[in-house]
TrEMBL record:
The lineage of its organism: Eukaryota, Metazoa, Chordata, Craniata, Vertebrata. Keywords: Acyltransferase, Lipoyl, Mitochondrion, Nucleus, Transferase, Transit peptide, Tricarboxylic acid cycle. It comes from the Eukaryota. The keyword Mitochondrion applies. The gene is DLST. This is Dihydrolipoyllysine-residue succinyltransferase component of 2-oxoglutarate dehydrogenase complex, mitochondrial. Its main location: mitochondrion.
């Protein structure tokens, strides 16, 4: 039998002899379920490329939690892992300090299952006296000056000879008098304060990877501009029907992702990578595009896989799914592993022009920017068109200028006229 608490129960038999005053009594014992069992919750296993993370607590000791409610988040180099409560209960003890490092299997906290309130021993320590319960200050000592009058005596008039004949504007205060007021005004206008915030693990990893890219790659950037008239008109005409049929909005990102997949197939060197350990060039016959997404914790790059076989609808659905997971902080490490090429869209923040940095170990990155009306020459005439600057930063150790420029011109031709995809031009 399972060891535990036992309770005795008594049953009085209602069938008794009326002539007798003796009742038939039966005792039996039942085992009580482990409702107040205390369990230790451990750190979940990480992906192969992640070894440790930092803990950020969402709950404190004594907090009641429901089943599957998030107790803490473990921030790793690539993403955050949420740790839910396995059952309803009360947090009894935190085994790792806030910001502490943990590995897979490290004990995190103790949970008292089934409890709905904090332990009694913690209540007095956590309680604080209400403001109304503050002790009454002792009465002031008796004074020998008698009661204080409720009315003030009249102020005697100032003699005329004591008045200063200078006008008010001519009376200047001394430096000692002006200093306090000047300091008060200056302090109210601008407080010269500083604050220090520890860099989280994801931000540290991003900084490290960006510096590694600068130190490793021979980065060079080439530019072009795209006339967005046709793609804007296509979106305007079909966006409502697209939303009605697929329950998702039609954006510009799918056009650039599909154009990039088309151009990467045409220029395989841009989709390749240098293996520095073996001094070999690795060519890929598949296209996995990383899409840079800004989150409050830093830049993440979830991957859309096998884009070469996807259409606009498939791409929009994949982008929407990854965006939702990023906003809810539900991206897993598997969502960001791999990737053969990256697209960064600074245009959503209003960027006009910029040079993106390669996302290692990839060899190139496409930078999109904002769409602005500009005068351009069309058929020998000046017209106002919605234009976008695009930039391709590439590793010049692997990709030559001819290949980079040709790749960017492919992007331009497909976005400006999507019929190029149908004709395989």
């Amino acid at each position: 039998a399972t060891a535990g608490m036992f309770s005795s129960c008594l049953i009085i038999d209602s069938k008794y002899n009326p002539r007798s005053s003796v009742f038939r009594i039966q005792y039996f014992r039942t085992s009580v379920a482990f409702r107040d069992e205390v369990i230790t919750v451990k750190t979940p296993a990480f992906a192969e490329s992640v070894t440790e993370g930092d803990v950020r607590w969402e709950k404190a000791v004594g907090d009641a939690v429901s089943e599957d409610e998030v107790v803490c988040e473990i921030e790793t180099d690539k993403t955050s892992v949420q740790v839910p409560s396995p059952a309803a209960g009360v947090i009894e003890e935190l085994l790792v300090p806030d910001g502490g490092k943990v590995e897979g299997g490290t004990p995190l906290f103790k949970l008292k299952k089934g409890a709905t309130e904090a332990p009694k021993s913690e209540a007095p320590a956590a309680a604080s006296p209400p403001p109304s319960a503050a002790p009454t200050p002792p009465p002031p000592p008796p004074s020998a000056v008698g009661p204080i009058p409720t009315t003030m005596p009249p102020v005697p008039p100032v003699p005329a000879h004591a008045m200063d004949t200078k006008p008010v504007s001519a009376i200047k205060p001394t430096a000692a008098q002006t200093a306090p007021s000047a300091q008060a005004e200056g302090g109210a206008k601008s407080a010269r304060t500083e604050s220090r915030v520890k860099m989280n693990r994801m931000r540290l990893r991003i900084a490290q990877r960006l510096k590694e890219a600068q130190n490793t790659c021979a980065m060079l950037t080439t530019f072009n501009e795209v006339d967005m008239s046709n793609i804007t008109e296509m979106r305007k005409v079909y966006k409502d029907a697209f939303l009605k049929k697929h329950n998702i909005k039609l954006g510009f990102m799918s056009a650039f992702v599909k154009a990039a997949a088309y151009a990467l197939t045409d220029q395989p060197a841009v989709n390749a990578v240098i293996d520095d350990t073996t001094k070999e060039i690795v060519y890929r016959d598949y296209v996995d595009i990383s899409v840079a997404v800004a989150t409050p914790k830093g830049l993440v790059v979830p991957v859309i896989r096998n884009v070469e076989g996807m259409n606009f609808t498939d791409i929009e659905k994949a982008i929407n799914l990854l965006g939702e997971k990023a906003r809810k902080n539900e991206l897993a490490v598997e969502d960001m592993d791999g990737g053969t090429f990256t697209i960064s869209n600074g245009g959503v923040f209003g960027s006009l022009f910029g040079t993106p940095i390669i996302n290692p170990p990839q060899s190139a990155i496409l930078g999109m920017h904002g769409i602005f009306d500009r005068p351009v020459a069309v058929g020998g005439k000046v017209e106002i068109r919605p234009m976008m600057y695009v930039a391709l930063t590439y590793d010049h150790r692997l990709i030559d200028g001819r290949e980079a420029v040709t790749f960017l011109r492919k992007i331009k031709s497909v976005v400006e006229d999507p019929r190029v995809l149908l004709l395989d031009m």
